[in-house]
Amino acid sequence: MDDQERAFPTKRQKSLKWNGWGYKDSQFLLNEQSGVIEFTGNRYPMSGSALPYLFNWFQQELEGNIDTQTPAQPLDISKIPPPVSCEKFNEEVQQWCKFISEDPEDRLMHGHGHLCEEIYLLRNNLYLDKRIPDVVIYPSSHGDVEQIVKLANKYNVALIPMGGGTSVSGALICPENETRTIASLDMTEMNRIHWIDPENLVAKIEAGIIGQDLERRLQKEGFTTGHQPDSLEFSSLGGWVATRASGMKKNVYGNIEDLVIGLKMVTSMGTIEKSCQVPRISSGPDIHEIILGSEGILGVITEVTIKVKPIPECTKYGSVLFACIEDGIDFLQAISRQGLYPASVRLLDNDQLRFGLALKSGKGLIERFSNNIKKIYLSHLKGFDPLKMVLCTIVFEGAKEKVHMEEVTIMKVASQFNGISAGEENGKTGYLLTFSIAYLRDFGFDFGYLSESFETSVPWDRVKDLIKNVKENLTTVCANLGISRNPYCAARVTQSYDSGACCYFYFGFYYGDLSNPLEAYTAIEESSREEILANGGSISHHHGVGKVRAKFLEETISPVGKHTLIAIKKGLDPQNIFASGNIIGLVGPTSLLQSKL
Questions:
Q1: How far apart are CA 170 and CA 544, in angstroms?
Q2: CA separation, residue 213 to residues 7, 88, 203, 338, 468 (Å)
Q3: What's the rounded mean pLDDT across residues 493-505?
């Protein structure tokens, strides 16, 4: 693919921020003369909008202050340490890759993901003395990767694979005590669709392709994977497999483990792949389950054979207002019990709903979203408390008749829980806001706020208590840490299953009064995770383990389970070439424990 046809170019820093989320031309900015927040660029429905109520919300809800600005520091290239080079490796590897780079900016761009801690350090020029990759290698084929891994074993070079770089688990952080040359294996040049099989509805695709590029190219041929994680714009197919990703439309298309038919992964011992690509196989433990969720510690995923479907005949949006989150959760459980699974159904708690209403812009969809909610409230919902009501957004996909029947049935179920239709437009707006609101964290940083998201999966009988207890615990921890302004914590239920749901949390707090903001952040994040586990939740639904959740792994899968993973790691990678230290810590010559930021 030509750079102009790609989500971002080979030199990703040309279009992507080095110290924040997304594209350089898209950001929330405060116009200090008018006191209005604006969203720049032209990529999103919100782009070019003035948001006159958003800073008001920021001041009232979070006690934000225009006088406490904490702008990002400009990049000081001189602070980036020189690479630990292995000249023989670099020389020999050049024939097996499209590019190789020791450029400081390239190395920095490949040395981090999008964990809150990483971005805070980058914005303050505190990341530049951290261990980062010494060289970046851009393979262009499976054969290239096989040769690169052989050379890494020959010269004892550590490899850390990278796709879109959207990790929020610390998975791309280089171990501080790694003394060997670290090579980042940038997979994004491997972005070809080898073939599409319209009869069997599968496609063979290189793992480095970015989600939005994959969908655009498949849709030109009349197909879709239907896999839409919130990071679709920037994350890669290989990254989805490596983290066991989930998408917003998983009800129709499945999670990534449901979509995968075949995989190729290059390990230190050779390539793992099945000899046939069939819908199901009984051949002992499924080797795919070792690759799925392996987060780069066992090898490099190079090719994926994945299910595709024809572009649906009809896509329709809907939304329902409920008086309280308990009613909304009961509704989600009820439709799950009845086997009613629209492509996407997500429940926003009151904190998230009120934030959404603050995005009123006077432009297009977002303006109408706020006005419609207000109109419905005034005409139908006078018994609803505006500080308790919640919104459910729904996406229906499929044949027109199926979509119509599903919509009618689901609205009947919603009425049993006193739900009121809030219309198609509100559902569409709520769904499409996902991609633009990801940029808000950087705006918070500009005014002294650290923020992050985390998620979990939990049985239905624990959903209500988990949401309530996690939010209360977070508020208590913030008070105990001496955080002076109101913290923010919002929740939503993003995916539903027969036996439970995925709960997603957003939190933020003012760090201007704290001597060590990252210590506070770690305390809040870890306390929230402990509260989740105490309430029957998992350590992650789709973000993966990385380094930040590795301490909870043994409790989750048992000591024997962790020992099993370590044994697989040692068997496939005896020299610890794939040395990121994710999931189980560093196992091999370097260390037994992962480093921390």
A1: 10
A2: 6, 35, 15, 36, 39
A3: 97
Find the DSSP H helices in 447-516.
460-480
pLDDT band at 1 (very low <50, low <70, confident <90, very high): low
Answer whether 431's CB lies under 8 Å from 248's CB.
yes
Beta sheet of 314-322, edge-to-edge order: 420-421, 314-322, 390-398, 344-348, 488-496, 500-510, 449-459
SS (H, E, C) 355-406: HHHCCCCCCHHHHHHHHHHHHHHHHHCCCCCCCCCEEEEEEEEECHHHHHHH
Centroid of chain to Cα 341? 23
- What burial class does residue 531 get, using C-beta atoms within 10 Å of its C-beta: 0-12 exposed, 13-18 middle, 19+ buried? buried
**Nearest 5°: phi and psi at 264?**
-120, 130
Residue 591 has what pLDDT? 38
Cβ proximity of 435 and 450 under 8 Å: no
Q: What is the mean pLDDT of residues 159-175?
A: 97
What's the residue count for the chain? 597
Mean pLDDT of 579-592: 74
Q: Which residue is it, tokens 């981090």?
A: 112
Per-residue pLDDT, 359: 86
Structure tokens at 472: 């209360």
* Residue 597, pLDDT score: 32
- Residue-averaged pLDDT of the chain: 93
- Close Cβ partners of 325 (under 8 Å, ≥ 6 residues apart): 347, 349, 350, 388, 390, 464, 467, 491
Residues 6+ apart with CB under 8 A from 102: 83, 85, 90, 134, 135, 136
DSSP state of 79: G
Write the CA distances from 14 to 6, 9, 23, 324, integer angstroms: 12, 7, 9, 45
Q: Which two tokens stand for residue 561?
A: 């389970």
Query: Is 510 annotated in the active site?
Result: no
Best CA proximity match to 462, nearest among 391, 534, 413: 534
Average pLDDT over residues 309-335: 97
What's the pLDDT at 429?
Answer: 84
pTM: 0.94
168-178 burial by CB neighbour count: b if 16+ within 10 A, else e? bbbbbbbbeeb
d(CA 122, CA 74) in angstroms, rounded, equals 10
pLDDT at 43 exceeding the cut of 70? yes
Least-confidence region, from 124-133, 198-207, 465-474, 497-506 = 124-133
Which pairing describes strands 49-51 and 36-39: parallel, antiparallel, or unpaired?
antiparallel
Contact between 183 and 152 under an 8 Å Cβ cutoff? The reply is: yes
Sign of CA dihedral 224, 348, 455, 47: positive
Instruction: Average the pLDDT over 62-84 and give the result.
Output: 92
Sign of CA pseudo-dihedral 564, 569, 570, 571 = positive
Q: Which residues contact 447 (CB under 8 A, 6 or more apart)?
A: 58, 64, 65, 66, 68, 69, 70
Q: Which of 504, 506, 511, 521 is catalytic?
A: 504
